[in-house]
## 1
Amino acid sequence: MNRPAARRTVDAIWRIEAPKLIAALTRMVRDVELAEDLAQDAMVVALERWPETGIPNNPGAWLMTVAKRRAIDWIRRNRQRDDKYAELARVSELISDDDMDKALDGEVGDDLLRLVFMTCHPALSREARVALTLRLLCGLTTEEIARSFLTSEPTVAQRIVRAKKTLNAERSSFEMPSGAALAERLSAVLEVVYLMFNEGYAATSGEHWVRPLLCQEALRLGRILAELAPREPEVHGLVALMEIQASRLRTRVGDQGEPILLLDQDRAQWDRLLIRRGLAALERCRKLGCPLGPYALQAAIAACHAEASTSEETNWIRIAALYEALSRQAPSPIVELNRAVAVAMAFGPAYGLQIVDEIAGLSALENYHLLPSVRGELLRKLGRYEEARLEFERAAAMTRNVREQELLRARAAECETRSSD
Amino acid sequence: MRFMLLVKATGCSEAGVPHSPEHRFAKEAILASMAEAGVLLAAERLQPSSGGIRMAFSPEGEPELESGPFPADSWLLAEYLVIESESVEEAIGWARRIPAPGGCERMEVELRRLEDKAAGPRNIGLENDLALQLGMLRQD
């Protein structure tokens, strides 16, 4: 195997294994920053060795063994220096290879969850938490995080450095909190788990073939959380949301044999098992007798779509009501845009247009091609073809998706013909 | 959140009067502790306004140009720092530690929050639903 090929393979393996490595190493050395360094050291060793030896059968276990050895070396070196480390050295000797294998094979899920709780320390701001999560749990590079947040790389890098320092300063423990401490961090933890799911889902571009695993990992963490905090309605809400959204995902295999996630609009293809699980989670949430929170509301909307066997059967009045509730609890431009479509479908395009026009000037939607797409569609239905044509053309100029562009141009042309009739 | 600390010009900064060694030392120390804390994103000093040009744009016609130096008032900038902080209070705390120039008249620092374009992470659930619903709206 040549070096660039090795590099690509190691990168791909890194994305899958890094969170588990970092979580297990954090358990050993109780320091996220050090754990990340040790994990990266192991990857450097892999980059040197693998081009000659080939990729081992179980690359994750290989990396874990190397990283673990380095961790133990580090602990021993520091043993005399600090009592804290001496204690850790004692602990580390209690960790056998067998533990490591177990850690790799499943129990690591608990370590991952511990890492999630750790990154949700109340001393961290939301921005810091998000950046740290994307880095440690989703395996994104600083550059990728910066790109998805439209911010600069130094800003993200500083945010991460700072977050790690804060965690060390706070001596944030790597234990799973319980009771009030768990409840206190729960909403941040749910956000992080949903972030992982989003990151996995965003892989629809097929750019990174390992991301689908992130969706599964997030779902798994969500299910564990639901067992840990069964009285928390939003935990079930989030699980329901992820299960139902995941039901629309289809994994296809690309040219290189890599799995690609695709968003499937054909409801006959949706995964019925995931839908049933999602509906059951939503039911558990409802049984707790609290007003639905933002995750549960989004899950309930997705459930409406999942339960309609054809698009004509969609209960738009209910969907519009759910978006109304969502827009009061977690307002955002995209919620409003969704609400506009639901209201248009339930009560007519004029009412939908009213809602769209209220958000049309927002700078957050400046480059969002779905805004003119929706507005154009509503204007077309109202017979205002000339205005509709302008919106479709605006939308076409904003999107980079060729098929979407063609569709929008065809719509614009159709409006032009109709307006001159 | 990011803040820009706009350090305003003084007569001394405009005249290029060098700062005392103590001031320079204090300045380096605060920048070092900002960097150490992972707060500092940028810090730059501007040349005196004698080398500057002001351009006034009006709705019609060409912009009007004016060469410096300009009056050393609250409008005039001498330095800027960009920091990342958790709160306004924290940003004020850092700004307080900027050393006052010895021997000069009063110095002014203005704190401004930078506009963050990113609203936050994407919400795939909402995006998927919108794509699905738009599809149904189109067919309707």
## 2
Amino acid sequence: MKAEIKTVLTVFSIVCFFVLAIASNTMKHLTFTIEGGQIPPDFGNSSDTLLVISRHDYLSYNRYLRKNFKDYYTKSYKLITPEELNNYPADKYRYCFDHIVNHTTQKTSTTTDMGNGITTRSSNTSTQASSDIFYVTDRKSGINYKTGSSSYFSKLMKQYIQALDATK
Amino acid sequence: MRNSRFFLDAILNVIFPVSVGGIIYYLHTNSFIRNHLPDSLWAYALTSAILIIWDRKIHFFWIFFVLIAFIIFELLQSIHILEGTGDILDIGVYLAFAGIALFTNNYFTKLRLLIKIKPNESRN
């Protein structure tokens, strides 16, 4: 085999392997099972109303939350604010759906030459929401059953809600 | 015959590990095995693929490139540019299994040479 063909084959192999790894990582984060620890073991047997915490972490979060629960969750649920949670006793409302936002902090430094031998430095730190984790808390035991993190929060939320709905 | 050797080597060291990794991934085994063994077999298979393409001679540029790519891949996951969870243990696992592929390279080179050439194929 010529060296050029080998090089092409090498690049092709590397690309294929990394595409495979990215695809499997995406699937790994969209797999929700009781065995995998993303769904509480008794979730399917419970007839309790699921409490769903609405938040204002970013503008579209509540819109997607409402839409996904309306479209994909056929059991009983109730949208509440975090402050209202204590009004609902754990023995009647055992499970609670919520999410965590992971943030990435970026620091930018700028150096400006003033022209007379003096330089000024300024730095700016910005924090952005980068990925989400969804979870269901068993309020009786206090255990959180979490998904993996994903930057595609609506997709992750939708798939998780569908999996919760399908749990028997 | 060279093609047969090439494909046998590829089946044993690339397709087989990737397939086993895929099966482990879909089986609900314990989470440590499920999270790390498919990744390690993937790293072994990719390193082996490069060795096989270059006739099992170590091509330093591409091997170094792949080792760096493993590290960058995990870093991109840790800063949430790529899907997944960045994990220093994953980097260790990738490098260890790439090391195994490199370490067993001589063995598979000898094994390739042991495959007998049929008389009618040796003339080609």
## 3
Amino acid sequence: MGESAAPGRYREKVVAPRAAGRETLYLLLAVTLILAAMALRFTLLHRSAGARGPESYQLADVRLKNQAPALYRALLGSAMDILYLRSADGSWPDIDQLRQEGLPPFAAELLPTGLRGFVWEMHRRSGWVDYFGVDASVGSTRKNADPLKNSFLLRIIDLQSDDPPFPHCRKTTPERYDIQVWFNSRKTDYPASDPIKRGWKWIYGAGARDCERIVEGPG
Amino acid sequence: MKFFPVILCLCLLLIPFSPCSVFADKANEKCGLTIGVSLHPYYSWVSHIVGDTARVVPLIPSEADPHSYQPLPRDIERLKKLDLVVINGLGHDEFVSSMLKAADNPRLRVIDTNKGLPLISVFTKKYAFEGGGRQQSFNSHTYISINGAARQIRMISRELEKRCPAQAALFKKNTRAYTSSLQKMLARALEELAKVDMGKLRIATVHDGYAYLFQELGIKVSAVVQPRHGIKPSPRQLEDTIRRIKKAGVGVLFAELDYEKKYVDIIFQETGCRIYKLSHVSRGKYERDYFERAMRRNLETIVRALTEVGHGG
């Protein structure tokens, strides 16, 4: 604004404040600093809350697609019955016994058609048992094309044994067994050794509530 | 030879005291337990397991809504006389926790049917004052299933076997027969569904209570168009339901038995979507075969619906 003059009286002169141009800059800088402080505080709070994401070899059950959740839940659900049979008989039940007990997924007639092609085998170890299944009717070259073309592994670990496999959960409860379901996006062989190196993912979900921390190695 | 009739008479007199007879009598003796149940399916399950050897007592009246039931003093008194109570534990029978506290019965043992079961997660939005983000809980309708029900029945049976060792063999036998019967129903339904091409079918439900059952049947649910049951839709909600059905391209909608006909007609007129009704298995007279009848009906309805719509009927 420039000067204006009322007739015969006084003359206005607009005086710009000192460093007016820089006030806006200072204001923007202050707002930026406040936002940065908020972001830093939020990040620190998030870390201190003990939030720990899944491990790189874990997969959330909610990310399973199509009929994979049905097979995952059937496997997880069979674990309690398997443990009961073991306590009753003194040994891990084999596939035929599980089939006769009417336990899906081993009793295939109790599954949707698309999951009935799975063939199961049992692998006993000193401290754990694996029930490994692949869809025998499928080729092995397609990846992630369909969950039915995947491989599944139910692993039940006796945490009181001398050599439980890794990784396994250290429980918050006095629960003796760690029940795990592993998933591989390809049709593959049984992972006799480290499943992680063979591309297997440990599916986690509601059952992980009592997992205090994951033990990945001895010591 | 002349002593043969005497020996025969002696043998006949000793039959009641034979080992087989003794054990049979033991098994059929009363277990003597009084077992409370919080939901209709549990009444059927426990009744099948124990037969006549124990007493099964529902905690709420037959037509009461377990979501909104307010316990009365007589309910608390009843709880004080129970030996065991079978509960859902996932929020479907929230009335039970306050009853258990009020009853303060130290010898009452609680059987949580969902302990150790694989559950379906449910995510709900948290408001800003709750910290925002999403809250995880679990779908409590594990009883509307067959394989899930079979697991729970076996688990309940094991707990009862511990309490009544003399009847353990009987409970095991009853449990095996019952679960086998239920699973044969499921197997028949799966065989029928195998004949239907479900690739292009879009299915929605008016409630998320059937998630476990549909998963067992290998059926993908494209949308749940109304989150709460028992609530009559307002015009706005009905409009939203119609919009979501159209958007998802839903061809089959499974509603509940008490879903009013007028809504069925409106939705069909607006969307061409066929509606079929399923039982929530939570209302009606407490009877031993209630669960099996309700689930048979549900399975038959689902098979019929998908067959009719899948074949363009």
## 4
Amino acid sequence: MKASVRDYLRERGISGGRAPSMIAGGASFAYVFGAVLLFLLLMEAVTGAALAAFYAPSSTDAWGSVAYLQDQASLGWLVRGIHFQGASAIVIVTGIHLVQTALYGAYKKPREVVWWLGILLMMLTLAWAMTGFVLRWDQAGYWANKAEIGIAAGMPLIGNAIKKLAIGGNDYGNLTLTRFYMLHVTILPAVVGGVTAGHVMLSRKLGPTPLGDGEQVSRPRWPDQTLRNTIAIAVVFTILLAYVISRHGVDLAAPADPVQAYDARPQWYFRWLFELRELSGSAKQLVAFAVPAIIGGALVALPLVDREPVRDPRRRVLYVGGLAGLLALVCGLTIASFASDAGSDELAKREAKASERAALARKLARENGVPATGAGDVFWTAPMARARALYESRCKSCHDAESKDRKGPIIAAGHGNRAWLKAFIKNPSGDENWGRTRLAKTNACMKPFQQLDPVDLDNLVELIYSESGESDVVEDKRKRGIDVFEHASIDCHSREEGMPGPAAPGLGGVGSRAYYLSFISNPKSALHMGHDKDRSQMPRFDKELTLAERDALAEYLVWLRKATPEDLAALDPY
Amino acid sequence: MGTSDTVGVMADEDRRKFLRAATRAIGGGVGLVVAGPALTLLADPATKMTVTTPTAPLDLGLAEQFRVGAEPRKVDVIAPVVKDAWLASRNVMLGAAWIQRTAPDKIVALSAVCPHLGCAVNWDPSAGNFACSCHDSRFNAAGDKLSGPAERGMDELPLQVVDGRLQLTWIRYKLGQTVREPA
């Protein structure tokens, strides 16, 4: 028994013997793929180390540190791009390596252990890629990880425990990131490194599986095979580099946001499983982890089932056919998954919105920095962002041109500037002004000033405009405007700060931040629309909104006076 | 023992030499293109101001609160924004300054950072001078050194009065030397 174990180990290169310096049958480009994979792993280690010097695994900082690395550090985009797409390259070359090995029957005795270590490596590298995707803590990585962990959580009995263990607690947060970061940069590199060492050492000792059956010349590994390996490495790296540069590295979505839905998609090499899961209806949870388990089991069992020494693929139709079928299934599902996405206009729209949001977040992070409260708050560093959000939720339905049930005057870019004042004075009950209010249907409403001399109107507008405190007032016109006001407006309005007019709102400081704050706080006050009785449909906001919120809106209205529709459009992050 | 055999061995040796050189050249080239960007990225922070505190003057409030003859008063120096790589922190305390009006039209600000090793310098009302809590360096009201291990007097900070408000420029100086130069 003991002797047979020793024989087994010796025969498979595990104990005794050394790697021969000659290659039986000579060097070949058919043997380069293992070396290319080894290079790619080393490349990931080098680029990964440089990235780790910038990365902060914390839920508030992770996205900001990646955005900084991507958009501000020299060549950060390139190193990150190589690192990210390098994982894709590893998956592709691993696929070729595996198919070639299976086709040649190279997993057969005495190379079973090499094959098993290879299968293990493939699974470990896929898991490794998964732990890397979440680290950026953007919408793409966050939601993809949620889906992947959701699959694991669907496992019977142990699913929930695995989920809690993986994400480090009951929900996504700081401990999720520190945990995945630890796996990504310590455990997995160590384990993959160790298994790779075993895999390479054994395959070196046993040598490549000869391509033909006949007796062949041996050639030295160095430099004959090494040169071929190096050429293959150079070709693969050049393709990778060209791809990364042509795409300017890799994307970064908006910061992770648990309440902002996102169309999560796994990396392309998991898309076949994603599609299979989508197609499986109520069995999708089961399918998502059972199918990979079955495929993995079949690959592990292959050398135990296909035991005949014959290696010619034509004489192993069953196994080669099975492998081809599996490949066709994986490719077909992958294509189907991408095709169904490409066919959806709705998805394209949502994705366009998501990438606009990402671009804005990255621009703001570059210009203003990410707030210490978390990367998601980067949107609040945009000028007027908070006021705009308040406007959207509290003002828009009554005041926006696009609102179906608008009840008050339109508030748009240029509100309260000279052109707006002129148009208002000419036609206060116009649809864009008070036309939709109850006030417009009463006699109390201000009458249009259409017969006013154009020069007088200009001067009057300048006077009222000057009340806002803007610095670009033309003093001569303003002075002449006082005469016009005394003549045309004094019966109803007052220019004295804090004083209502005899029959209409006071215009002292109209258009200033303080005026807007006062109006928003209580439009029904005697100073504003309550000069004789309450004529405003607008509610008071002094109880509903905080002083800071009302002031933010007042500041927004002042800003709006000089804003263009483009400025306004640039504010909307969603 | 044919000559052609020897030529064959020689040619093989030359070929090997060439293959070795080619392998090293290609491998080295790929290695450089991988390591180059990674090292550039690693060196990037060394070429930048990664932590930026405002260089513009900071508002310390109304100038009229300081009167001639009053004792020096400690005022916190707070930066509205400090940028640290990707992070922007608001209202960050940079340090403190001792402020006193020495003449009706002159207000002086002394950094509360001891020029010796950077401890906080406090006003000692009983002695009527400044004292460092760590090594008991003493400075007079004008900030000149009186005693103790400090190499120089307290550091004066640029101060302006704009529209009746104090505007202070915060500077950290190198510690432990007689010459006053920004850190």
